[in-house]
Amino acid sequence: MSFTLHRGQTPLLISMPHVGTHLPEDLKPRLVERALQVEDTDWHLQRLYAFAKDLGASLIVPVESRIVIDLNRGSDNQPMYPGRNNTELCPTRFFTGDAIYREGCAPDEAEIRERIATHWQPYHDTLAEELLLLNVLHGHAVLFDAHSIKGELPWLFEGALPDLNLGTVEGRSCALSLRAAVYAVCQRQTAYSHVLDGRFKGGHITRHFGRPEGGVHAVQLEMAWRAYMDEHPPYAWHETKAATVTPLLRELVQVMIDWRPA
Question: Quick one: what percent of the chain has pLDDT higher than 90?
Fold first, then answer.
């Protein structure tokens, strides 16, 4: 299995589609040496959100690196943000725009289809099944898609990202009352900059599964690495920073657990 699933006791399912770091051995020789460091990982999120299990949340966590396949892209490989630089379903470029593969070694269409069948489809099938189960058990389901990224990446976006970037696809992926409740958590504090539906409005998972009319409400958080870790190799966990931001994340998760549709 290319992911792990923990079932909780609440309506909340947390997805962390970019935390995997494993690279298949037969893939490594085709990559530039730099790619072996899997720098575009959403580092340490399992550790950062470890409290969520105690709160009763379900968690789905992949094993493979996003270099193998990006679980937060559509299987049709359409650009997530048209008109901007984007990485693909099976990325060929780092977030800096540099090549991931050695010359002539990028995956072809047949290999991409195989990766979809082996890694992407099972993850998305399980998301759908778990959300349906939560909806049946609780009368609704909340999907929290958790991400993190380096705060400055000129190839992808201008300037520095806010610390906390909440995405609800302009309010279409969840009830407006949930949108307001999660953003209120950010607004009640002053330690971290924040934005709602800014540069990152929600990736494929949030857009595809967020169907409030069907009882599934999806929220994405893209958090700048600087809030909890070092932004330069070896991308180390920062104990003080992490301890400082954790109460805010815990409050955010608790709000999503406690929220109920009107």
Answer: 94
The closest alpha carbon to 148, from 237, 261, 31, 258, belongs to 237
Residue 120 pLDDT level (bands cut at 50, 70, 90): very high
Q: Is-cis flag, bond preceding 154, omega within 30?
A: no
- The amino acid that residue 93 corresponds to is R
Of 148-152, 156-160, 180-184, least confident by mean pLDDT is 156-160
CA distance 176 to 198: 16
pTM metric for this prediction: 0.96
Whole-number mean pLDDT of the chain? 96
**What CATH code is carried by the domain that includes residue 37?**
3.40.630.40
Which residue range(s) make up the domain with 228? Answer: 3-258
Closest C-alpha among 131, 137, 106, 120 to residue 204: 120
Give the residue from 117, 110, 93, 88 showing the smallest Cα distance to 40: 93
Return the sign of the alpha-carbon dihedral for residues 66, 132, 250, 219: positive
Indicate the number of domains in the chain. Answer: 1
Please name the helix (run of DSSP H) or strand (run of DSSP E) that holds residue 129, with its range, or none: helix 121-138
Quick one: which H or E segment has residue 219? strand 216-224
Angle between helix axes 176-187 and 239-258 (nearest 10 degrees) is: 150
Mean pLDDT of 111-137: 98
Give CA–CA dist 168/201, Å, rounded: 6
